[in-house]
Amino acid sequence: EIDFYARVDFTDFMEIVDRLGTLQISVDCAIQDWRLKSPELDPTVEDNWEVYVLPIGRQQLTPYMSLWYVRSRKTTNDLDRGRRQMDVLRAMWYQARSQGIFSQVTQLWPEAVEIVETDMTLTDVLGFLPLAASMEMSDITRYSGTVGIHYTSYVTPGDGREVVLPNRENLLPLIQNFLTPPTTNRLGRQEISVDVVDASGYAQGFDLVASDRLAWEGFNARALGTTGVSEPQELTVIYDFTGQSKSSALEDLMRVLRVSETQVIYQPDPNRTVDFRVEIGGAYNSCVYGNAEDELELGPPIDEEEE
Length: 307
Fold this sequence. Notes:
Radius of gyration: 21 Å
Strand order of the largest sheet: 10-9-13-11-12
Mean pLDDT: 92
């Protein structure tokens, strides 16, 4: 049973982003799609569109580009779009908390209900404030499923629609994890200290991107910019100071950051101040979602713009 709902349209969504002062988002999967050359242009005119690539990195998105980011699916799919939408919701919460907006809820409420359609009262919202103000990124878990594991791609006979069919055997454990309390393994990750630095040389905030990605897995990782980086490196390297042989925490870090055993350096230190140090290299790519660039050949989404 759903307790409450909150709903906005495209214009309201962009208004919220504008009130936040653009959207700070960690893009861990580059995305390519059609976009308007300028938000003010007529979307029904084909020449007003261009193919655009949003690269991996810490991005600052305008209201229009924020909407573009959560709507795009031309080269991905609905599951990936849902993943990005969860990223954006988390980023909105984090920015609102950082800007002290939670302490202004009572004053902002009349304005908020003009933008957001909801069955929640001010009293309901105030009841959630302690949680919203105290939780950390690592307290939020994302469940979305993956094609090839939880779902199987399928083309319907006759009309040729591309859909996904549930893989019951793999999907049920995912649903069970969603409905039950966090596992001991996940809770234990919050006790593991991880420092992340950007050693790519690209100055694109890869340390922030990787830290935000690790937060989805329950790690409290610190993004430290380029602290201690002497020169750029191609590959990501994990320094393990724990002295444990292939711990579950290390295995999780390797899986999430897509790091092989050859990229792990063991330096046991009983006097350590941090358990792991991760140096993100220029080849960093934790993305496991493919892109179907051939879909762009169908042209800009003129007919879809008002959906």
